[in-house]
Write a structure and sequence with these properties.
Elements (H helix, E strand, L loop, with lengths): L5 E6 L3 H12 L3 E7 L3 H11 L2 E3 L2 H5 L6 E4 L6 H10 L3 E4 L7 H14 L3 E3 L7 H11 L6 E9 L20 H4 L1 H12 L3 E9 L10 E8 L4 E7 L27 H6 L5 H9 L9 H6 L11 E6 L2 E6 L2 E6 L3 E5 L8 H13 L7 H20 L3 E2 L7
Length: 396
């Protein structure tokens, strides 16, 4: 651990920030010193919670000499400009996934960071989660031979959580492919240890009131001849947390009796503005503050993203919220991982290693660009009804 905490500025105090807030509060290696957000109630709450500073623009925040790194938790469409601003001020950057909506923007972001000599990380995605990292290490040991086939399935109520209008428009970066597929894509890329070569996919837009992709199934081939099948369904019926002991995506206990709660909450909504207001009620500065996070129960297990199987030549590995199940040639065993003290702490660990020790991050800008390339190929394949080659990868 570094001798003093990494001094972080935050751009965007919305949903992504609230998901990372428990990490920032509990991780001893980071301190929040400043923020920028258009909502005055959020800025005022940040100042109270962290005795920090609030700015009305990204430029003003990045000009703060105390800030070492910037966390960009703003909507996708602002990422490219904000990365360029942060890089110009010499700040290291952690940008939320997807890093952008176009490969050209990804290249511009990478060029800005490399030109300024700063690290650019993309996250968080669930490929940071320790059970998947442990499974990757087991694969890397060679004990189980090469990875041959990966199956990933996740079923949630994603599409019926309160959304702003742009979150229901694929062209504006909404929908399951841009929002949820990066998690699955990065997990299978991590486990395969290879880049994706081609994609054949089908997407589902099944509710005319929610006119964006709520589901997809994709078949991926990798450059090392491994294959993966990815299925995501966000229409709020079957829940794959049932396959993980009712441990939720954020490592918390779930109540299986609260079936269809997301749909029920939306029934009272009549307009897009009412739905946006409903989402705002869950935002930082209103119902979420540092005090509410500190009062929450600590996670009982690791974050996860549904059901994952990695079939190798001499065994199959199943990462779970509490460890990795191993089905080998001659025995079955379970590697239990200690309960995490800091949820999503792996994200900050990787950022600190980059900034303090110069360790090139796994989840770099080129990593994030490769993920976007797969997501774009998924959409293109579904639209054209054929297998497509993936544009760009980490070597590009």
């Amino acid at each position: 651990m570094a001798k003093y905490p990494l001094r972080l500025g935050v751009v965007g105090l919305g949903r992504a920030f609230t998901l990372m807030l428990p990490t920032f509060i509990r991780h001893p290696g980071v301190v929040l010193v400043a923020c920028a957000d258009p909502r005055s109630v959020a800025r005022e709450c940040f100042v109270r919670d962290f005795a920090g500073r609030a700015y009305d623009s990204v430029e003003a925040l990045c000009a703060d000499p105390e800030i070492e790194a910037v966390y960009l938790a703003s909507p996708h469409q602002f990422h490219v400009e904000q990365v360029q601003i942060a890089a110009r001020f010499g700040k290291h950057i952690l940008v939320e996934k997807p890093m952008a909506l176009r490969l050209a923007d990804c290249r511009a972001m990478i060029a800005a960071a490399e030109g300024a000599g700063v690290h650019l990380m993309v996250g968080h995605s669930h490929s940071f989660d320790q059970p998947y990292l442990t499974a990757r290490a087991l694969i890397g040991s060679g004990e189980f031979g090469s990875v041959r086939m990966i199956n990933a399935i996740n079923c949630t109520d994603y599409l019926y959580r309160p959304r702003r209008p742009e979150e229901l428009s694929t062209a504006e970066g909404g929908g399951a492919v841009f929002s949820q597929a990066p998690h699955q894509v990065e997990i299978v890329r991590l486990l395969a240890g290879s880049e994706v070569a081609s994609v054949r996919a089908v997407t589902g837009i099944w509710d005319p009131k929610r006119p964006t992709e709520g589901a997809y199934t994709a078949f991926l081939t990798f450059e090392n001849a491994a294959v993966a099948s990815l299925t995501y369904n966000g229409y709020g019926h079957f829940d794959t947390d049932a396959l993980n002991g009712w441990i939720g995506e954020m490592g918390q206990k779930r109540d299986p009796e609260r079936y269809a709660s997301a749909r029920e909450a939306l029934r009272a909504v009549r307009t897009a503005s009412e739905e946006s207001a409903l989402k705002d009620k869950r935002a930082y500065g209103t119902s979420v503050t540092a005090a509410t996070i500190r009062g929450d129960e600590a996670p009982v297990a690791y974050n996860h993203f549904g059901f994952i199987l990695a079939a190798c030549e001499h065994g199959t590995l199943r990462p779970t919220p509490s460890g990795v199940e191993i089905y080998g040639d001659d025995e079955r065993k379970f590697i239990e991982l200690p309960v995490p003290v800091v949820p999503r702490g792996e994200v900050i660990d990787e950022l600190i290693a980059a900034v303090r020790d110069g360790v090139a991050p796994l989840h770099s800008g080129r990593w994030g660009m490769a993920t976007l390339g797969v997501c774009l190929a998924l959409l293109r394949s579904a639209r054209n009804g054929r297998e497509v080659r993936v544009e760009n990868n980490v070597k590009g």
